[in-house]
Design goal:
By secondary structure, the chain is α/β, with parallel strands linked by helices. It has helices at about 20-25, 55-70, 90-100, 120-130, 145-160, 175-185, 220-225, 250-265, 285-295, 305-310, 315-330, and strands at about 5-10, 35, 45, 80-85, 135-140, 165-170, 210-215, 230-240, 275, 300-305, 335, 350, 355, 360-365, 370-380. The radius of gyration is 20 Å and the shape is globular. Belongs to the thiolase-like superfamily. Beta-ketoacyl-ACP synthases family. This is Beta-ketoacyl synthase. GO terms for molecular function: 3-oxoacyl-[acyl-carrier-protein] synthase activity.
Length: about 375
């Protein structure tokens, strides 16, 4: 099977509108989370907003694609480039606005213009048009595991020789009244900030943003002398089949995804230098994820958590995690777990930036409904 490498990254988050800005914010322990009240009918809560008002999905995606292409030194049209762009919320903000429009003050339904453009797959189709691709277009949706699922699907297309290049990742603009109200109803939202794995963690903080990667076969990357962030070594994808939003208490399906990923990557737990955790700062998720890590990995493995800086970008969070982990591989520097002051669990959390020779890492995403995604990356074996 073909080796798959990452040659370009576009990233935007509450920390910054470029990969470098967000990375520097991580290293210096900053957070993009602030108290905000974007909707007058809802109370003020902490949010990871990119600007003063909620972002629009299509605009974010165009920005990210342009940034990824520029970083990878590619110029459209890219006719034979696969497109795998996911989102868990998609155009929900558009649909909520359309629902309001359907009944005016006179109670009469109104004509909804261009509603077809807001169907779940249309954001991926817009990316295909933006880059001039006439190849495979996929639009995965796997809740908070969407980002890693998308990168895994694109990796498989290249590993199996179907494509030599793919653009993959996930984008999320989830700050809508319904999303906020839904998470509040579940009791999942924090009241002051995001504190992953902390004794005093309160819950998740919604954030917006995304990350899009350029994936290529190692042969194509070498042929065009591309900059390489790292190599995608393998992935694991499983489902709990247990509960609509709670993870399976023993973590057995998440463990299966990790073991599947390690096997496909030719790795053992002892080979892993660091793990970018899902780390949502909810009571249940952090507890189970910590148990899984303690059960499978040696105590010295370094633990990263970045949602204290960016907020939880839902379906895009795994793609952001992979981008940050690749940056850590490239820079041989591990960023601190922002928001973690008093760990509840006995793991090797990174609390200050560390410069260290890292070679291999894992990224975890454990989504609502029990969708588990794990990706392994390493220094390129060229």
């Amino acid at each position: 099977m073909s080796q798959v490498v990452v040659t370009g990254i576009g990233l935007v988050s509450a920390l910054g509108q470029t990969l470098e800005d967000s990375w520097q914010g991580l290293l210096t322990g900053q957070t993009g989370i602030k108290l905000n009240q974007p909707f007058p009918e809802l109370h003020q809560i902490p949010l990871g907003l990119i600007s003063s008002q909620p972002s629009e999905l299509g605009h974010l995606t165009q920005m990210l694609v342009a940034a990824a292409l520029a970083d990878g030194e590619l110029v459209p049209p890219l006719a034979d480039c696969a497109v795998v762009i996911g989102s868990s919320r998609g155009y929900q903000a558009v649909w909520e606005n359309m629902a309001r429009q359907m009944s005016g003050q006179d109670g009469q339904p109104r004509f909804l213009e261009r509603w077809l453009d807001s169907l779940p797959h249309m954001n991926a189709m817009a990316v295909a048009r933006q880059i001039g691709s006439v190849g495979t277009v996929l639009a995965p949706m796997a809740a908070c595991a969407t980002g890693i699922w998308a990168i895994a699907q694109a990796t498989f297309l290249i590993q199996t020789g179907q494509y030599q290049r793919a653009i993959a990742g996930a984008v999320e603009a989830p700050i809508t009244p319904l999303t906020i109200a839904g998470f509040q109803q579940m009791g999942a939202l924090a009241s002051t900030g995001a504190y992953p794995f902390d004794v005093h963690r309160e819950g998740l903080v919604l954030g917006e943003g995304g990350a899009i990667l350029i994936l290529e076969s190692a042969a194509l990357a070498q042929q065009r002398q591309a900059k390489i962030y790292g190599e995608i070594l393998g992935f694991g994808l499983t489902a709990d089949a247990y509960h609509p939003n709670q993870p399976e208490p023993t973590g057995k399906s998440a463990i299966a995804a990790i073991q599947q990923c390690l096997t496909r990557s030719g790795l053992n737990p002892q080979d892993i230098d660091f793990i970018h955790t899902h780390g949502t700062a909810t009571r249940l998720n952090d507890h189970i994820e910590s148990q899984i890590i303690d059960h499978l990995f040696p105590p010295q493995v370094s633990i990263l958590a970045t949602k204290g800086s960016t907020g939880h970008t839902l379906g895009a969070s795994g793609a952001l995690g992979v981008a940050f982990a690749l940056k850590a591989l490239q820079q041989k520097t591990l960023p601190p777990c922002v928001g973690l002051q008093q760990p509840e669990f006995d793991l090797n959390f990174i609390c200050t930036p560390q410069t260290t020779p890292v070679e291999k890492m894992l990224c975890f995403s454990f989504g609502f409904g029990g969708q588990n995604a794990v990706l392994a990356c390493g220094q390129p074996r060229l």
